[in-house]
Amino acid sequence: MSGIADVALRAGVSKSTASRALSGAGHTSERTRTRVLAAASELGYVPSTNAVSLATGRTRNIGVVMPRVNRWFFAEVLEGIQATLLARGYDLTLYDAKPGSPERARVFTEFFARKRFDGLIAVGIEPVDDEIGQLQAVGRPIVSVVGAQDQPGVVGIDDVRASRRATEHLLGLGHRKIAFLGAGDAEVWANVDRLRLEGYRAAMSDAGLSASILHVPSPVTLPGGYAAAVDLLSDDRRPTAILAVCDEVAIGAIIAARRLGIAVPASLSVVGIDDHEFAEMFALTTLRQEPQEQGALAARVLLETLQHPDNPTLIEPMPARLIVRNSTASVDPSQL
Amino acid sequence: MSGIADVALRAGVSKSTASRALSGAGHTSERTRTRVLAAASELGYVPSTNAVSLATGRTRNIGVVMPRVNRWFFAEVLEGIQATLLARGYDLTLYDAKPGSPERARVFTEFFARKRFDGLIAVGIEPVDDEIGQLQAVGRPIVSVVGAQDQPGVVGIDDVRASRRATEHLLGLGHRKIAFLGAGDAEVWANVDRLRLEGYRAAMSDAGLSASILHVPSPVTLPGGYAAAVDLLSDDRRPTAILAVCDEVAIGAIIAARRLGIAVPASLSVVGIDDHEFAEMFALTTLRQEPQEQGALAARVLLETLQHPDNPTLIEPMPARLIVRNSTASVDPSQL
DNA sequence: TGCAATCATGGAACCGGTTGCTGACAGACG
DNA sequence: CGTCTGTCAGCAACCGGTTCCATGATTGCA
Predict the structure, then answer these.
(1) Which of A4, A304, B126, B203 gives B167 a disulfide partner, CB atoms 3.0 to 4.6 angstroms apart?
(2) A60 contact to strand D (CB, 7 A limit)
(3) How far apart are the first and last CA of chain A?
(4) What is the DSSP letter of B109?
(5) Strand, coil or helix: what is B106?
């Protein structure tokens, strides 16, 4: 492996001149610059990232923490981040931090303390207790995607609004018995779930249906939604419409309805939030959010902050658009 | 930020002694060691990874390349790798490399050349053309998960066997018209697909059914399987059983069958390969592989190789066990 | 033509660790 | 008691770059 000293030697200049020529900083004559560049490419010179980082203090690496990666939303966000960083020549170091796990504690103390990155993107991390302090202590800019409400620099949709919008869609179709399916367990999504539930509650109240509010807890997974929906649809609480906390739960509900012989949308309307990759196949009406875009935005904002640390970028909530497909229909008058 | 010099000063020793005491290398008296350790913890000393890497040549970081992360198998493998590395104190740098994309080319040249890692795990990477050379040029140990056949150090199941086993299960139930659903496009999975198709072909031939071999191409996704199955089941090629290249395709087929009013397993048996997280919910009979385990194994093997570069670890194919659920049944005699 | 400002370059310090070499000291042994 | 061996600690070089500072060469302007 040839270092910058070899390049300098070959170009007949000093290390410092070679460095300046390669990085473009400082003054260099055109002639030397081309000579150095030629020497570098002839030798296949690649600067040592460690040496550069040690000398400059910046790593050209971004850390990403998320509770897990094998869930549609997180994987999509990660793709978005990755693509953006790659384009800018940044590396991405991934940290897994399942809530409550001992590994998570290690990540927050040991791994973050190493400061292997110039900045951190926290996806779906709702820091608890001393984790907040530990994040501060990292001393690097942080951008969150769907983080806790009170964190700074959070990218995401307005969940209350999205959920309210979804509920209003059902109300507009004449539905009155609308159940909210999902959340209620102390899982990762806690905060997002809470906001979406809130939006549903608000829309119902505004429609004078406070008394009809029905929150059915369910794990936030497809099978979880399936199981919860089977229960819900089999007993006398059966609603005419379901708003699911996310598409996976919604799809679980659709599958449950089919199993039970309940026609969707004729006898049951279902609406989700996400626009999951499976949504189209199930003709699911949903509020589309674009997690890849969210990831990309988070990455862009973070890189921007690194360049201009003093003028913080203001982050607008991202839009969530209603996509009407074929899982929702006007309520069957006989069901009222 | 306090460096090792500060620690040394506080402990009243030299930098080198502090370094030895902290790393455990070389001789240090018990007394100095405790003093140094105390000083370090009082100062909250964390060694600079860059300085360590620069001096020692090792990064305590592992690179992971995969074509994409938002696909069940890859996400699971990644979880497995992550957990194992975390436990050993290693960082993980993720590289996304969709086949054929210009970004992939950059990853293979620019990003790999930086050698930010001690070793590389390539998941589902089937290197083409000069990529093989570029991987060699990295000069770091590489372990693959479901890579190309001729690569060294590949972790994975025996796909031919798994597929053969699945086919034999259907044959054992009396099925004769068995279709193989999936693959056929020049996608990521090409090699795995090919092997699984091969296993199916072999089992059919052995049963004297070469003439009945029916390969139906399909994108390797749930919606893709759905669409292909709708076609297949609607026309006169309709088989009594389907072997899908993976569970997502299999589940797509089950959903398609339901839509078409074809009872599973009464009128159609479906078997998959994977044991996807949704498999249980769809009562899918499948050959279970455990991607998390594969990821973990790959990580262990790689770390082992780093410690003992000269005695290569032999990697056995991982087991794939048949999980019989309720998507397969004896063939309906009237269909023969 | 003289002087200041600007440009191009080299030398050396520095980032923060690790490690080879050397010497002091202590205990073991003849 | 002298020498040998092994432990412990410090000095200084080194990993591979960046960057401050000094110097000499140019150029611009009065």
Answers:
(1) B203
(2) no
(3) 77
(4) I
(5) helix
Cross-strand partners of A179: A214, A242
Task: Tell me the two tokens of residue A76.
Answer: 């999509």
B254 touches strand D (CB under 7 A): no
Exposed / middle / buried, residue B105 (Cβ in 10 Å: 0-12, 13-18, 19+) = middle
CB of B116 within 8 Å of any CB in chain A? Answer: yes
> A157 at the B interface (CB within 8 A)?
no
For the beta carbon of residue A44, count every other beta carbon within 10 angstroms.
10
Backbone angles phi, psi at B74, to 5 degrees: -65, -40
CA of B48 to C1' of C25 (A): 34
With beta carbons under 8 A apart, name residues in chain B contacting A258: 258
Cα separation of B336 and B333, whole Å? 5
Say how many residues make up chain B: 336
Q: How far apart are CA A130 and CA A126, in angstroms?
A: 12
Mean pLDDT for chain A?
93
**Cα A289 to Cα A274: distance, rounded to the nearest angstrom:** 5
B178-230 residue pLDDT tens: 999 988 755 445 688 999 999 999 999 999 999 999 999 999 999 999 999 99
Is there a contact between A193 and A182 (Cβ–Cβ < 8 Å)? yes
Q: Please state, in angstroms and rounded to a whole number, the distance separating the CA atoms of residues B305 and B117.
A: 14
For residue B265, cis peptide bond before it (omega within 30 degrees of 0): yes
On whether the CB atoms of residues A118 and A59 are closer than 8 A, the answer is: yes
Q: Report d(CA B117, CA B64) in Å as an integer.
A: 9
CA atoms within 13 A on the CB side of A57: 4
Q: With CA atoms as reference, report the closest residue to B36 among B51, B50, B24.
A: B24
Residue listed under structure tokens 């001729």? B150
Nearest of B280, B282, B294, B323 to residue B162 by alpha carbon = B323
At A273-303, the pLDDT tens digits run: 999 999 999 999 999 999 999 999 999 999 9
**What is the reported pLDDT for A189?**
53
Look at the block and give the residue holding tokens 């199930």. Answer: A282
Distance from CA of A63 to the nearest CA of B (A): 9
Residue recorded with tokens 């996806």: A123
Q: Which amino acid appears at position A142 of this protein?
A: I
Instruction: Please give the structure tokens belonging to residue A143.
Output: 């951008």
Cα–Cα dist A128/A19, whole Å: 45
| Cβ A297 vs Cβ A318: under 8 Å | yes
Segment holding A96, helix H or strand E: strand A91-96
Q: Is B336 exposed, middle or buried (0-12, 13-18, 19+ CB in 10 A)?
A: exposed
